[in-house]
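Format notes (please read before filing issues)

Several people have asked whether sequences and structure tokens are stored in separate files. They are not. Every record keeps both together, in the order shown below: the sequence lines, then the token lines. Line labels are part of the format and must not be stripped during preprocessing.
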Amino acid sequence: MDAPESPVAPPEEALSAEALDALLPDFEVGSIIAHGGMGTVYRALQPRLDRTVAIKVLAETRGEGGDDFAEKFAHEAKAMAKLQHTNIVTIYDFGEAPGGRLYIVMECVDGPTLYQMLQKGPLPEPQALALASQLCDGIGYAHERGVFHRDIKPANILVSPEGVAKLTDFGLAGLRHGAESDTGGWGTPGYAAPEVMVFGAAVDHRADLYSVGAVLYESLTGRLAAEGWEAPSRLAGTDPRIDTVLQKALNANPALRFSGAAELKAAIDRIRAAPRKPGTRAATVAAAMTRTPQRTPPPAIGAAPPRRSAVPAPVSTGEVPSVPVPTPAPAPSRPVVAAGSGRRVAPRRLPVAPSPQDKTPIIVVCVAAAITAIIVLIVALSGKSDKPVKPPEERPPEERFGIPH
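Then the structure lines:
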């Protein structure tokens, strides 16, 4: 755990570091490094083994919780001590100090909690995915041994200087609320699955998967998923494939979530193995969401107007100016040497499209041909009638008045 620069102000009911040092002669208690609802954590030195440890003293004593509470504490401590995994804080010992104060001696991680990291803002996408994948490794290992965490949240996740995520407080949430591992009624709102918040409801390992999804969502967006779902790709410009993973992990129905930590880890690792490329549509959209538009600032009051171009504008004369169309120059020809023969081969010239000026003779010829065809047609039609036409006064009455014969 990360030792702050100044001592942490303990709650009123917590022991001071000096008072605890007097109760635990086998340790040299230095300072308080964290405290919360479960208890207070102290940094201490174990001289016999010459190692730095963290000692967590539970807020509830034997006298307050009774003998049953002390027995459950011993049972949970033994279960946690059996979990030897890179992503789980190692338990060294547990016991009861004078006055009925129950404590656990555990690995001291020289790093902040994820909660402390998120106070500075969301994490970069690669780092958030890497930590979520490691959490899946840790809880998958615990689930295989029949141990549920029950209260996964950023405050219970330590991050070492090497970037290794370590889960702490395994099983203590159920101990605090007096619940069994297969019933609800415990957990932290905002991170606990819906069934966890219902006292006596059936709960299994998939509740931990929901909590991992909630932690990943907050790591990417800086918001709690319980405050209102909005796709991280829209909210923070992340990979759209993460939306699909989170929708399944955060499903209110346990049957529709991932079946186990290994399946959730595989889905996360597939995204990590093939990250978005800068040219993809999703990356372009994400970049556009985060890009600050460049706007031209308005001119200052009293500033001189912008200088106009020195080139005079053309004066309109009512005539359409003729614009010469440049003709592309032919590419220079070079002798090409054929491979392997040593002979020079004449280069091939690419056909050049004719310019509009080259089409003028063709148009003139076509018009002349059309006029000639019309004249020929008129002459042909006029020459069909060989019989002279009589004037009207020389025609017989039958033809002049249309009288039938």
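For reference, the curators noted about this record: Residues 140 and 316 are 82 Å apart (CA to CA). The beta strands are 28-35, 39-46, 51-58, 91-97, 101-107, 157-159, 165-167, 336-337, 344-345.
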